[in-house]
Amino acid sequence: MNIQSAQRSGDQTVLKRQRNSFVEIDYSDIAEKMLSRSDVLYIRKGERVFIVGEDALNFANIFNKETRRPMTEGILSRKEKWAIPMIRLMIERVLGEPDNEGEEHAYFVCPANPVDSDLDTLYHQKTVQALVEEAGYNAHPINEGMATIYSELSDNNFTGLGISFGAGMTNVCLSYYAVPVLQFSVARGGDWIDKQAANSTGEPVDRITRAKEDDFKMDFETATGDIAGALAIYHDAHMEYVIDQIANQIVEADIEEDLDLPVVLAGGTSSPNGFSTHFKKKLRDADLPFDIGSVRRAQNPLTSNAKGALVAAITEEEDE
After folding, report:
1. Is 278 exposed, middle or buried (0-12, 13-18, 19+ CB in 10 A)?
2. Running DSSP on this structure, what letter comes out for residue 270?
3. pLDDT tens-digit map of 111-131
4. Is 14:6 a contact under the CB 8 Å cutoff?
5. Distance from C-alpha of 298 to C-alpha of 312, rounded to nearest angstrom
6. pTM score, two decimals?
7. How many angstroms separate the CA atoms of 315 and 320, rounded?
8. Residue 235: left (phi > 0), alpha (psi -120 to 50), or beta?
9. Reduced to 3 states, what is the DSSP secondary structure of residue 278?
10. 3-class secondary structure, 17
């Protein structure tokens, strides 16, 4: 749902973000003059003007248009012909120019191949790597679940289960002392929840997404038929599905049974109040071959993976 970066500046971590969306409007001289004087991110292609990022939602509402996504299902959209130019623009905006071109390390987060779909993530990974390198950086991929662990489990020697609930996919990584033992993704995420809730209520997907991001809570007290009620139902179904996939993959991988692992949850889909409490209960009730220690949400689920990639980049530079 978001293209983000994290960079060190002195003792501070600087975060930048662009929403993974754009909307197309008709070109006019007046429109371009107004846009050029504003902070709105846009590009012009012939007689087309594309509003990119967070402002795309506002323009979509004004012009009664639907936003489009350069990335869907957790990877570059296969159906959107403007996907790569839009992602290139977002990457350039959130990274900025390097001080030393080609020498600074940028780790970018990539999903693992899903266990419940024939989607392959290699094309996405190689394309994003090329775009990051075009921006002037030494690019390295990092698994999304591993980024969660780098960000949140330094106090446990980077050992535990990291689950990143993204928009397109849900990524899972089991790490032991920073070595990934098991990593995979599930081809469902926040987008799946939004689409199911939209189908059930008859509301547009963009409205469902906005309601979820604004004030949705997993309290299961909202009357069935409301947007919040539908969101609660499909969040619950998504949790059960992810836990079933985790149990299946751990059994297949023959993980040791004497482990006592902490679990950390990241990604925007894990942000609603009550999510981590509800997930913890379901996970403890599941038939897993090892003990579950603490289950907690990342300090900031939305930015956790960008910070995890930053930890990897800092480590790379320190090693040099």
Report:
1. middle
2. G
3. 999 999 999 999 999 999 999
4. yes
5. 17
6. 0.89
7. 9
8. alpha
9. helix
10. strand
